[in-house]
Design brief:
9% strand, 7 strands, 11 helices
């Protein structure tokens, strides 16, 4: 009788696998801090205005706001180069603005106007701009992870030195295609930074109730993809993590995961009353960890006055109000647009 093969006993994780260094907060100059402040404030005021327009019935369909999470996108995307690409899910307005898409083009898309970045046919959840290296805006949960892996493959195939920043949420982290993508990305050492924006609630369910492993930065371990957990409410911590992740990926070491611990102040979408958490919980985060207030304090320590910050506020409000006015006044698409962009017409 043949001898049964010896069973291999469970072994502890191998500790000698190369890992990225622990990131340190970015040391920003006064001018850089002001720019971070402006960008976060632009996203905050833009999203507040979008919420108002939704309430007035000028924005249809779904509308997912980024209020509270501004430090993540600002910190990460401030480290990108023009050749890098960005892809995300349906909470996408802030990422688009940071890719250089004009606020009026984004707002016009939200209101379904012909001047919108997707000609009024994408709306809140499906905006797109190849020109700005922004590849969506995707309504299918987790779909952008596989597409972002494809963008990483494109960067490597072309040899353009680019990196894909692929955002997804704590809910999407449980999707099957995410792990198929991880496997391929590590096998081929693709230049992808997988960014898990862990805002603590997948729609209306706490991450602790929805995920058996709620330390999401560990999700790539079985694929040998290292992960780093980052304070997503601190823009300097986010930028520092971006620097470390980009250095890892650009060195040809393959993908990396950044779990950004952040928090959304509003419901999952505008139609969500958010009864699964208390007002006190949300207010406590606002009081202790608001990303914009944090940078405001840092600026005040550097001698920036309240008057200076009021000037920034006025400047941002003017930009947002003009974008909203444009979005309300510009015409809707011609009916013939229903038949365009259905198929790729150039190969």
């Amino acid at each position: 009788m043949a001898k049964a093969p010896a069973l291999r006993k469970a072994e502890p994780p191998v500790p000698n696998r190369e890992r990225p260094d622990e990131p340190t907060p970015y040391s920003a100059s006064k001018d850089e801090l002001i720019e971070f402040y402006k960008q976060m404030l632009l996203i905050r005021r833009f999203e507040e205005k979008a919420g108002q327009l939704y309430g007035l019935g000028l924005i249809g369909g779904f509308c997912h706001l980024y209020i509270g999470q501004e430090a993540v996108a600002v910190g990460l995307q401030s480290a990108l180069t023009p050749v890098d690409s960005v892809i995300t899910g349906y909470r996408d307005h802030g990422h688009m603005l940071l890719c250089g898409i004009p606020p009026q083009d984004v707002m016009a898309e939200l209101t379904g106007r012909a001047a919108g970045i997707s000609k009024g046919k994408g709306g809140s959840m499906h905006m797109f701009s190849v020109e700005h290296k922004f590849y969506g805006g995707h309504g299918i949960v987790g779909a952008q992870v596989s597409l972002g892996t494809g963008l990483g493959f494109s960067h490597k195939y072309k040899g353009d030195g680019g990196v894909c920043l692929a955002y997804f949420g704590d809910g999407a982290a449980n999707q099957g295609q995410v792990y198929e993508s991880f496997n391929m990305a590590e096998l081929w050492k693709l230049p992808v930074i997988y960014v898990i924006e862990n805002n603590q609630y997948a729609m209306g369910t706490s991450v602790n109730r929805a995920s058996a492993e709620d330390q999401l930065y560990r999700r790539g371990e079985s694929f040998r993809i290292p992960g780093i957990q980052v304070d997503g409410m601190d823009v300097l911590a986010c930028r520092g993590a971006a620097e470390e992740a980009l250095a890892w990926v650009r060195a040809g070491k393959g993908p990396i995961i950044l779990e950004m611990k952040t928090y959304r102040y509003r419901g999952h979408s505008m139609s969500d009353p958010a009864k699964y958490r208390s007002r006190e919980e949300v207010q406590a985060v606002r009081d202790k960890s608001d990303p914009i207030e944090h940078v405001k304090k840092l600026l005040e320590e550097q001698g920036v006055t309240e008057s200076d910050l009021k000037g920034v506020e006025q400047e941002i409000r003017k930009i947002v109000n003009e974008a909203a006015d444009f979005a309300e006044q510009t015409p809707e698409p011609d009916a013939a647009e229903l038949y365009t962009d259905v198929l790729v017409e150039k190969y």
